Every structure is written in structure tokens, then in C-alpha cells.
Amino acid sequence: MIILEWLKAVLYGIVEGITEWLPISSTGHLILIEDWLPFAFTSDQAFLAEFGEMFQVVIQLGAIIAVVILFFGKLWPFSKQKSIEEKRNTWSLWFKVLVASIPAALVGIVGDKILEKLSGRDIDGWLYNSIVVASALIVYGIAFLVVERLHHGEMARVESVDQISYKTAFFIGMFQMLSIVPGTSRSGSTILGAMLLGLSRTAGAEFSFFMAIPAMVGASGIKLLGFGSWVAEQGVSVPVDAWVVLAVGFLVSFLVSLAAIRFLMDFVKKHSFAPFGIYRIALGILVLLLWWVRR
Fold it and tell me: What is the pLDDT of residues 118-142, one digit of tens each?
């Protein structure tokens, strides 16, 4: 039985490692997998629900570590091989990433608490369902097709992340805020926003990767603390199988992300995002059909 749970964790890690970086919504895909292949290493359904919610966020840390490793030279400001100007540019890039992170942090942390206090349900409670996921997949799929059509043959005003202004970074962050809706895709919304603001596909994708670092580290920390608080309140113990499943998903997500990031960076240099838009629309329609069959 536990071998089956490990295989499920491997599948979750593969899907997370691929979909976190491609603009097709990692959360949407993980929700769909959870509907069909939920974990069952314990009979405590309340524990599995809490663990599953934490698991889906924390395995994203594996994907984030892949970004840090692949772009370490660009992100590390203390390198002795960098000139003073290069170090200054690296710090500037980090500050821009932090500025871009403000909108999503305000909505994700402050807004979530306010909504839960007023309605009794947090953002996840209101939005994590098949209809919302399918709608977001289709809407943003259409948006990618439209933006690519409008920008076909047009030269980007910003070709490198070093050329991004603080104002532009903040507005890209506003687009990242939209990814709180499951099915939107954090990378999808930020890359789409970056293109609308004049960035090239390459610069938009790269800056989106960097924005994921504080976003996912923060989200993972919050989920881990929330899970720990729930475990303490309920007085339950976390089975060893749960930690093994989490570790497997984390490691697989990291390894697959290394390949997925390289793929996307090579892909956007030669192709548009239109195929991803078509995929999103097709997947959204499939989700609606599955929801209709199972209701």
C-alpha cells in the first residue's frame, strides 16, 4: 500500500515540476489529480485533507530550489567574480522582485484573513473547486492567444530583466496577484502581464521565475505553520509515511523543475505561448465535462 502512496507522490512531483513553470496552472493540475488519486496512507480523512493542502504547496519549494540553482550566478550578489556595478544590479533585481511581491502578499495574507473572518471561509474555501479552475484555465488560455495575436511581430521594449523599472515590477506583481484564483497559473499571469507591459517572452519568463522565490517560500512557510498548528490543536501524531510522501514529492518536483525551466527558456526564444493557450482551453473544457459527469 505504501509503495502506491510513494508512486502517487512521484506523480504529484512530476506534475508540479512541469506545471509550476509552464503557464498552465500547477494548482489546477494538482487539484485535478487530488480528485482522482488522493492520498490514502491513513484512514483519518481530516488529517489527509490538511496534509494534502500543505503537501501541494510545500512541494513547490523543490521547484523553487531548482530556480535558485539554475540562476544562482545571476541571483547571488556576493560573488567575488562580479564587479561593483554587477553586484549593484543584482541587489536592484532583488529589490524589484520584492516590490513585485507586495500585491500578492497583501491579498494572500491580509485579504485571506479578512475574508475568513467575515465569511467563515478563506480564499481556498471559496475558490478551490472544478468550476473555478476550469473557468480560469479557459479565460487565460484565450488571453494568451489574444495577446500573442496582438503582439505578433512587435518588438519588445524590455529585453532583459535588468531593464525592468520598479514601476513595471510592481505592475507585474499586480498580475501575479490574480494567480490566487486556482487555474490561473502564477507563471501564466505574470508572464502575460509582463508581455502586456512591453517585456520580451524571455525577460517575462525569467522575472516570473525570480518572483516565485519569495512567493513560494512565504506560502510554504504559512502552510507548514498552519499544518503544525492544526496537528497540535487536534493532538494527533504525523505518521512517518506522511513525511516520506512529502520528501518524495519534494525531491521529484526539484528534479523535474530543472528540466522544465530549461525547456521553457529555450522554447520562448523560438516559439510563442499560443500552444499553451490552446492547451489551457482544451483542459478547461475537459474539467467542465468531468465535473458534469461526476456531479
Answer: 777 766 667 777 888 899 999 999 9
Three-state DSSP state, 71? coil
**182 backbone φψ class: left, alpha, beta (φ>0; ψ -120 to 50):** beta
Buried-state track 169-200, b at ≥16 Cβ within 10 A, e below 16: bebbbbbbbbbbbbbbbbbbbbbbbbbbbbbb
- Res. 99: pLDDT tops 80: yes
Instruction: Please report, for residues 106, 137, 183, 195, the alpha-carbon distance to residue 141 in angstroms, rounded to integers and kept in the order given.
Output: 26, 6, 10, 15
User: DSSP string covering 99-120, please?
Assistant: HHHHHHHIIIIIIHHHHHHHHS
**Domain regions of the chain by residue span:** 2-294
Q: What is the mean pLDDT of residues 144-152?
A: 86
State pTM to two decimals. 0.88
Q: What residues does 199 pair with on adjacent strands?
A: 158
